[in-house]
What does this fold into?
Amino acid sequence: MSEEQERPRKQPIPALLARERVLLAASDEARELYSQSAYGVILEDGKLQLSLQEGLYLQEKGRITIHDGKNKPITFEAYLRKARKVEPNFWVRYAIFKDMRNRGYVVKTALKFGADFRVYDRGIKPGEDHARWVVYPVHEGEQLTWYEFAAKNRVAHSTKKRLMIGIVDDEGDVTYYEIRWVRP
It folds into this structure.
């Protein structure tokens, strides 16, 4: 028997969708998601607050079950509809988040840096070291002007991070481009 089969499967943690975030009650299981895997932020009352991307990812992985305000479970499709109302670009952002998390990176929001995400090297948690990249998700059909590109590159450079553009195609596959400053 493999180690995976020997360990009892943990019950999914109940969570509440509260418009632009997902909340988990203060519990050992919620604190474990935060401390071991760097999901969300712990609020003053001990609850764990997840981003919309973190919530959907953890639901897909079977780690949490998301409910609405009436304690009804929310399906994947219903969650997507609600998330798109809050973030029109949700699916593209989620494709990047999911891909990076599946590759073992810690992904956090980067609004204060003027980017969508900040990404930490594998094995590094926020607070232990700085993020290596700021990531901008883009759908393959979108156009990015040189002005927009230069602005994104300048933000990354001024925050001492590398710029990464994640391009998502219609199937949800992601291609990454890392941009660095070079002095001739």
About this structure: The two ends are 58 Å apart (CA to CA). The chain has a mean pLDDT of 90.
